[in-house]
Design a protein that fits this description.
Helix content: 40-55%
Shape: globular
Oligomer: single chain
Strand content: under 5%
Structural class: mainly alpha
Order of helices and strands: EEHHHHHEEHHHHH
Largest sheet: 2 strands, antiparallel
Length: about 375
């Protein structure tokens, strides 16, 4: 087909869209108008038009999102900035009341503080938490108890919320084995007394019941008491004193074949070795932070590779320390038999008055826990 174009037509070529548009100009005489005129139509239509410039503001919802909450730099700085006195390190000064208590009494306290939270009323549990927190503030230095109490309280609070809101949030599918009272011709069960409510709090699918509150308080109090009582015991007692106290309690078990000497030696080495692990974790993190790595210019896999290098360096240093400890024990005459190897425990520094006060307080706590089951109902 031959396309004829009127000689008076104008041609315009667009640089952005290389298509030819025909703009016909008809003469004033209608007789000279051609019979057929042809115009081209674009084959494609633009349905969506968008433009983005560097000066455009982000959406409003994007401004509300939190940014840089968890980053590699913050994690390493928090590890490197941790206190130099971990939970298991002995603090010799300032000398406090607990430093003069016999280590055997401290171990008895640790056992009681594990049993009491599971057997007492909820008010007694919170009173025990308050007692341990106050004792930590009084005994430990400020830079130590601020760090330890903060982390222990945060962990216990998270456990309290998770256990309390998740205990009865999902209803159990229970099928009764007996028919309802109406089918048996019996009256319905009367409602409970006024003022009692099993459900204490409800927020959507989450609910806090009396069962959840009891279970959450037990879990949180047990976690707090274990961590904080262990912190108080380890920061005021040397590893040798703890090994001596544990050996005194385990002596009767040696007659039934329990390897008491190996257990005591393992405990002594563990208490010495944990300090080295904590120091290596903190020192290696401090070395990475001091290099001032620009984490924004690193890809995700490069950041992961830095963390793997960090963990690999920690294990390498720990194994080096373990080898040095082994060599030191071999030089000192250890040949693998714990019973024939002599362990020199440090002399006991207990005083009679602190021991009596600790025993009286321990007996009073046990009596208060026993009475709480009958009084606090």
């Amino acid at each position: 087909m031959n396309i004829q174009i009127h000689p008076t037509a104008n041609f315009t070529l667009s640089s952005r869209n290389p298509r030819i548009f025909f703009l016909p100009q008809f003469p004033p005489n209608p007789q000279k108008i051609p019979k057929h005129t042809y115009t081209t139509k674009p084959l494609f239509k633009t349905l969506i038009k968008c433009s983005q410039t560097s000066d455009s503001d982000p959406p409003k919802w994007e401004k509300l999102l939190p940014k840089n909450i968890i980053s590699a730099d913050k994690i390493l700085r928090s590890i490197a900035g941790a206190t130099s006195s971990p939970i298991c390190q002995f603090i010799s000064s300032p000398t406090t009341f607990l430093h003069s208590v016999d280590p055997r009494i401290k171990l008895a306290w640790l056992l009681v503080l594990v049993v009491i939270p599971a057997r007492t009323h909820i008010y007694m549990r919170f009173g025990l938490i308050t007692f341990l927190a106050s004792l930590s503030v009084w005994i430990l230095p400020r830079q130590v108890w601020v760090d330890q109490l903060g982390r222990t309280t945060l962990l216990s609070g998270i456990l309290f919320l998770m256990v309390g809101l998740g205990a009865d949030s999902v209803p159990m599918v229970v099928q009764s084995r007996t028919p309802p009272p109406s089918m048996m011709g019996l009256p319905n069960i009367p409602p409970s007394f006024d003022g009692y409510s099993y459900l204490l709090f409800k927020l959507g699918p989450l609910q806090l019941t009396r069962k959840g509150l009891s279970l959450a308080s037990t879990t949180a109090c047990l976690t707090f008491s274990i961590f904080q009582s262990a912190s108080l015991c380890l920061t005021t007692t040397t590893p040798e004193q703890l090994a001596f106290a544990l050996q005194w309690f385990m002596k009767p078990l040696a007659y039934v074949g329990v390897p008491v000497a190996e257990v005591i030696l393992t405990l002594l080495l563990s208490l010495r070795f944990i300090n080295l692990v904590f120091d290596e974790v903190r020192i290696v993190a401090l070395g990475i932070v001091s290099r001032r790595i620009n984490w924004k210019h690193l890809a995700t896999m490069e950041t992961v590779d830095v963390f793997f290098t960090y963990i690999r360096r920690i294990f390498k240093n720990i194994f080096n320390h373990a080898e040095q400890i082994t060599q030191a024990m071999t030089v000192r005459g250890f040949r693998g038999d714990s019973s024939s190897h002599k362990i020199y425990f440090s002399s006991s520094s207990s005083a009679p008055i602190p021991n009596m006060v600790s025993l009286v307080t321990l007996v009073g706590l046990i009596g208060a826990a026993a009475l709480s089951e009958y009084i606090l109902i």
